[in-house]
Amino acid sequence: MSRGILIAIDRGGTFCDVIAEIPGQEDYIFKLLSVDPLNYKDAPREGIRRVLERAHGRSIPKEEKLKLDSIESIRMGTTVATNALLERKGSPVLLVTTKGFGDVLKIGNQTRPHIFDLTARKLGHLYEQVLEVDERITLEGFSEGGGSKLELCKENEDDNVVKAQSGDVIRIIRKPDLNDVKAKLQQIWDQDKIKTIALSFLHSYIYPDHELQVAKVAREIGFQVSVSSELQPMIGMVSRTSSTVADAYLSPIINEYIRSFSSGFEGGIEAFGNKLLFMQSNGGLCPWYKFTGLKAILSGPAGGMVGYGETCYDLVSQKATIGFDAGGTSTDVSRYAGTLDHIFETVVSEVSLQTPQLDISTVAAGGGSILFWRNGLFVVGPDSAGSDPGPACYRKGGPLTVTDANLFLGRLCPEEFPNIFGPNHDQPLDIDTTKRKFQELTDQINKDQKNTTIELTPEEVAMGYLKVAVESMARPIRNLTEAKGLSTGDNNLACFGGSGSQFAVSLASNLGINHVSIHKYASVLSAYGILLADIVIEKQAPTSLVYAKESLETIEDRVNRLTEEAFEEYKSQNLTQFTTRVEAFLNMRYVGSDTHLLIPYTLGVEKLDKKFIQRHQNEFGFVLDRSVLVDDIQVLLVVQNSEDTKENPFEEFRSLQVTTSEIVDPLYVKKIYFEGKDWMDARVYDLDKLNEGNVIPGPAIIINSTLTILVEPHSNANILKNHVLIEVENEKKPDLSDKVVDPIQLSVFGHRFMSIAEQMGRTLQQTAISTNIKERLDFSCALFDGNGDLVANAPHVPIHLGAMSFAVKAQKEMWEGKLEQGDVLVTNHPSAGGSHLPDITVITPVLDEKNIPIFWVASRGHHADIGSIAAGSMPPNSKTIYDEGAAIVTFKLCSNGGVFDEAGITRLLYDEPAKHPGGSGTRALSDNISDLKAQVSANYKGIGLLQNLVDSFGLSVINLYMSAIQSTAEVAVRNLLKITFERFEGKKLKAIDYLDNGCAISLEINIDKRTGDAIFDFTGSGDEMYGNLNAPRAILYSAVLYVLRALISMDIPLNNGCLRPIKFKTRPGSVVDPSTEAAVVGGNVETTQRIVDVMLKAFEAAAASQGTCNNFTFGITDKANGVSFGYYETICGGSGAGPTWDGQSVVQCHTTNTRITDTELFEKRYPVIVHEYSVRTGSGGKGYHRGGDGVIRDIEFKYTGLEVSCLMERRSMAPFGLLGGQDGLRGKNYWLRKTEDGGEYRRIALDGKCTVKVSSGDRIIIQTPGGGGFGNTGGTSSKYDIVEPQPSILTGSVGNKNLIETTN
């Protein structure tokens, strides 16, 4: 043989796919079960054995060690690491980190994974033990508000000041005592439990010396060490530490798997040399000895993206291809536009992973997605039947799934499946059970819909679920494209995976895509991509440079250095016989922004900032008058596959001559059900017998040994050399009744409405500039019907949920008959539906040709400063609304066709607040303007998407379904209230609690048993106060909506219908119905927490959570030094326990879910040093179920004259326990004032509401409250079916976007 055998293997969750190129033979392609212990120990080794049998024409006993001499290369993608992560079956890990930050991963970004989950449950961390090392560095300067212009201490002036490799100037506060570290590590080693270390120190991404010193000590003892600065030298302590722990957790599992796999070959692991390559998450191969846990997470899916990028991209037209990879247990989407798109961070099973990876998003559970009928809606997933029990047709008692719907409607060919089902794996698919279950489900749906004129058949029900499944899969694909300013229809589609080709036509039709490419190896395309992939050596280094003429030489030097390092590794891997190419990228962003774009770098080419600006404009719709920074430099050395493997089925199709060869007879004809066409005869063809140039009109099914392609009506399948290319006609949208609601279409429209709100949120987050909106994600976006009633609200900040509807209605009333095209309104005043003044709402009407509003869209964002008597616009001592900054009842932000009135809004934000005694205009005007423009952009995005719906279906239909989706939410709330009436035996629900100043929050609930209506009576609450804890009625509505949704404990539409059964009774002039001049800044963030606690107490659902947002602000306007900035954060605490759960520690509770700024970013941007951020152990209340613990946050300030404010509750009144559980500990605040001699600190207790001016060296310590305990004995049953959500399956950029919407 002139060359050896090439073998590519993708070991997935269910199947192990194998492709082998054997010289002189046809490609050998087959599938094995990934786990089949009765027949083999290891699926990949078994696959190789079968390949060698085929190649050499002889039988090889299963127990015989395999020879490698005829094999040129084994290339493998594996889910070993992913499965270990999902199942939490990794290696015991010791986390070694900076003193004061041992709880960095317990706290994380402080959000709870599921916004309406009362348990606030987070998955356990991956490490087993923590060792804190007394070492510390920090950045010498700060970047915000003119800080970058200040002169820093120089290296020659202080031995502890060093210029880091990134160019940043750092200060070494403490060096590690290596002898002490060695002694402690030796003690742990001697316990013989933990042999793996994850090492991550603060700011090691720019100054790795301390990490490397400790790593050397640990390795000398014998530990296997994952070092954060070696794995991924990027800013972000939480993500980098999480990634390092994941690497340490998974790498021993990977190593053990490789050892076990290699034991089946002659010579063992050392015999492989460079023959054994693994696919990495970044889409490149690496030798087995370079393969680590962190690189393995997307190993298999990465092969699929490489596969369709090589074989299904139109290189001539350069039209991008969307990849749709649907398997039995997961569905992945991605996009290829000539290059492999990378992201640097994703979340898998609640573990943040910071490493270069292909932008592949897991978006659904695949064919195993379970079908539900809930609250009048068809729901598909995200729960999955998995492979055991699997779908109902698998004969293991499983539920109805997407696979069952396909089988029932004739879209699968059961006779082509092997008899591997049932308890003994020896029976065929069970169509009879599937039919019976669909009949039962249809009977239930029709019973629930008896008041309508629609009666569905089982076929219509199954078809409805497939329609909803397609819609739910289309949503993330739209997010990949339309959220970047791209049209989804301007792409081609490539479908692959076990079930991808069954959805090809319906998905393309939904997305407006005309051409679908399906490779002949589509069912094993991930393995094929692995076969085609290149070896990639990656090098990366942090930098901190403004892109300018004077920095070009430095950038070039660093690119050259990284390139040299890559080639050194290339030589060490003995790869010099292959050709190479070098790809370099600059990770660029605007000053003050965190939106990074990877811009290709070419030596000698200047003005890359212009390329960044142009791409930013294309993707986000705006540019900023700011400098462009380079944060990281990445170099990829690509060791190229020797063959040109590019295929272009689209060009082949364009030049295709229809063959004169007759189409072979079909294998048989079968019945398939299609929407609106009933059962139709469809021919079933064998793909291997069709001729190039044949055109197969739909309906038809094309199959081979591993593939089933459904060709629907209104589509034609063109047979090419290596592909089936399907032309999809733009099928006319169905004519829907504007009088009668179809539950299937209602479910679809529910997805569409929510998708619009989601894409608005994505646009706002990407285009905003402030930390509050861009990082803390303190914003919400929503759409409303013509009356201003909420239709869909992407679940961002809970306290925004119901409130925005009242803001829209207020503007509607004020501007009745006065609006014109292009008008955009802005408001923040509580009298006009506002929450508190920093939350500015931008409202845009969608007008018809008579300028009458037919819809409204709105976005509400928390602005870091809008003036007021205190920096950060959260004054703890405000007495009237005028103390709190700019108060805007209404203002036309845009008019005259959409012209932004910058002068007018500047007057309102800057000039007007300064007229109030002691007041100041906004301290962050440029950020305000940028964020308001971003809110306008988000609204325009929503308008465009709404207009598309109207164009497709007509205004009357959209109005019908906007009303119907509200009715669906109404029914869910009424059912909850009826159940509550029964469980409380008809008694009124009552509860009372008190704010720290003694003001009562009182609630009495009276439920109508028959209708599910309820009166929520707050008239017993205290009077409006001369302070800022007053809560406007809009805020009250939001708090009630949040609690109702949390008690329902399942997904329902979040809209105005939720509040229709509720009648609110408040007393004008009370704390929950204050006058228009009342101060309210604390009511939005603090009183609402107490309202929620009181409601949950009345429902006996949960003990009190920490009951405060712990609002903490600081800022300054130092005109002498040209420094001006404001900063705001909310700090997590303990959640309350419930009847079946312990409270979660260190988590945001109830009406907020905002992130904390990462410590490294915090110290880079502001003049601060964080000394401690840890769990306040023991602060949760005792009980049968214990309350969660609060947190300790210790911040030192490095700039004299900063104004620091606290606005916090639960410093006097402890979070209550419930039904015998004990109270959680109250919060405490301290000010450590540096004495004049600079030696000792004076420790001063601070109130929960205070403002102080600090000097350089002063510290503020905040100890947040714990949650209350629940019960003192066992056996307490829950009155509500609180279902703890499953971990999200979403990954990639779509998963990151979901975090934006649910863990903001």
TrEMBL record:
Residues 240-538 form the Hydantoinase A/oxoprolinase domain. InterPro entries: ACX-like_C, Hydant_A_N, Hydantoinase_A, Hydantoinase_B, Oxoprolinase-like. GO terms for cellular component: cytosol. Pfam families: Hydant_A_C (PF19278), Hydant_A_N (PF05378), Hydantoinase_A (PF01968), Hydantoinase_B (PF02538). Residues 742-1272 form the Hydantoinase B/oxoprolinase domain. This is 5-oxoprolinase. GO terms for biological process: glutathione metabolic process. GO terms for molecular function: 5-oxoprolinase (ATP-hydrolyzing) activity. Residues 7-222 form the Hydantoinase/oxoprolinase N-terminal domain. Residues 551-729 form the Acetophenone carboxylase-like C-terminal domain. Belongs to the oxoprolinase family.
